[in-house]
Design brief:
This protein is an alpha+beta fold and 339 residues long. 31% of the residues lie in helices and 26% in strands. It has a six-stranded antiparallel sheet. A five-stranded mixed beta barrel has the order 7-8-9-11-10.
Length: 339
């Protein structure tokens, strides 16, 4: 299996970083729930894609034949430049196993948000400097000029980078989804990560009892409140039963709950009549939620108060102006007179 994180896939053999994911299973068995594994792997690959996009380092992922002992994923991260390898491989372990940390921007101070953004920008600059230094080194080797680059300031640590990355909602959400998927297979006792495929290499291990600590609860989002908006009724609900109304709002058809009890009673007692083009002037709540990728999506609509019912005006009777009837056939010819 190959997961593309970059469209450019023509690296040299030394532009590859190794990464191992090791699932430790109860009783030392060598199989796990395939659906759990595939879903977890999809989240991990999505996390790598977000990492690549965030720091501006394109790479793609290739899977290799797996080893023995539990269930093991052996991945090659194939980069365009070998200078990228150390940065990414160093941060993967802390990113997946560091102490759980995530705060939405709503709960972060401006200073925290600015510091996290600054860390990401600094990382991008370090990567760009490494690329430029590599090009310069090759050029100087050609001309036999030997110089040593002077470091401008201390490099970021992998832990600092991981912390800044985990402040990004999409990355935190993908990591959360990954551990949430692993919880579904009770045979998984732990998961380990290593920056090499070597057998017996030291792993950063997360025990099963810790999985839930890495799961980020979906954010509770306040509804968007619109006052005095116009909704054209497409399908009213004329009887009780919890059915949703349908109408046109903001040029699209929506289904909504009607929560105005007084107006519901008026509808039930037929004191409100509906016809094609009836419009409600009302207050509308738009409910939002986070989806599995961290994006905000609309979860539903509710009309909380109806202020006015506007019925379309009756069709005006068209006035027909008297017209001269045009004769047909021979009668249509004008008189020509005698010749």
């Amino acid at each position: 299996m190959t997961e593309a994180v970059s469209d450019k896939t023509a690296p040299k053999i030394d532009d590859v970083g190794e990464f191992k994911v090791h699932y430790h299973l109860a009783g030392g068995v060598h199989q796990m729930d395939a659906l759990v594994r595939n879903k977890a792997e999809a989240e991990l690959l999505a996390l790598l894609h977000e990492l690549s996009s965030t720091i501006g380092v394109p790479f793609h992922v290739e899977s290799k034949a797996r080893g023995e002992g539990g269930v093991i994923e052996l991945w090659n991260l194939v980069f365009q430049h070998k200078e990228h390898i150390a940065f990414v491989m160093a941060v993967l372990g802390p990113l997946l196993s560091a102490a759980p940390f995530y705060r939405s921007k709503l709960r972060q101070s401006k200073q925290q948000t600015a510091m996290n953004d600054l860390t990401i920008q600094k990382l991008k600059l370090e990567i760009a400097e490494k690329e430029a230094a590599a090009v310069e080194r090759v050029e100087k080797e050609r001309t036999s000029v030997k110089t040593e680059p002077l470091p401008l300031e201390p490099s970021l640590t992998p832990e600092e980078i991981a912390r800044a990355l985990l402040a990004r909602k999409k990355i935190a959400r993908r990591r959360s989804n990954y551990y949430e998927r692993l919880i579904d297979d009770s045979r998984i006792e732990s998961v380990g990560f290593a920056p090499t495929h070597r057998r017996g290499a030291a792993e950063q291990v997360i025990e099963r009892r810790q999985f839930s600590d890495y799961v980020v609860a979906r954010a509770e989002l306040e509804p968007l409140v619109h006052e005095g908006v116009l909704i054209e009724v497409v399908s009213p609900v004329l009887r009780s039963g919890g059915l949703k109304w349908r109408g046109i709002f903001d040029k699209k058809i929506i289904s909504f709950d009607l929560e105005d009890r007084v107006f519901q009673d008026r509808v039930a007692t037929k004191r409100v009549q509906f016809q094609n083009g009836t419009i409600l002037r009302c207050d509308l709540d738009v409910f939002q939620r986070e989806d599995e990728t961290g994006e905000v999506e609309i979860a539903g609509y509710a009309v909380t108060a109806v202020h006015e019912v506007r019925s379309p005006p009756p069709l005006a009777e068209q006035e027909t102006d008297p017209q001269f009837s045009l004769p047909l056939g021979n009668e249509a010819r004008p008189p020509t007179g005698d010749r």
